[in-house]
Specification:
CATH topology: Metal Binding Protein, Guanine Nucleotide Exchange Factor, Chain A
Strand order of the largest sheet: 3-4-8-7-6-5
CATH class: Mainly Beta
Strand content: over 45%
Order of helices and strands: EEEEEEEEE
CATH architecture: Beta Complex
Structural class: mainly beta
Distance between the termini: 4 Å
Largest sheet: 6 strands, antiparallel
Number of domains: 1
Length: about 90
């Protein structure tokens, strides 16, 4: 699977996990040069506290367009430290 934004592949992996319709990419599969930590956090009742990244490609920012769970609750251990996308980031084979 590939995550693409602004005509650039920002993550690529054959080992994504699918939860609630979202592909979660292993953290080591993201191209870190396109990701900046965000101060945003949200809470999921069964996954835990999510952290966010702003994606930046060619000077264009997509604020809080990627999220991950650094420490999940027990039911979501398979996606711990995996990154998912929204806000116009395409995930394709």
């Amino acid at each position: 699977m590939k995550a693409i934004w602004n005509n650039t592949i920002i993550a690529e992996s054959d080992e994504t996990k699918i939860i609630e319709g979202n592909h979660y990419f292993p953290h080591e599969s993201i191209k870190k040069e396109y990701f900046k930590s965000s101060e945003t956090h949200t809470t999921c009742p069964w996954k835990g506290l999510a952290s966010y990244y702003t994606v930046e490609v060619d000077g264009n920012q997509n604020v809080d367009a990627a999220w991950y769970y650094p420490h999940t609750k027990d039911l979501a251990k398979e996606i711990e430290n995996h990154v998912a996308f929204w806000k116009g980031i395409r995930v394709v084979e």
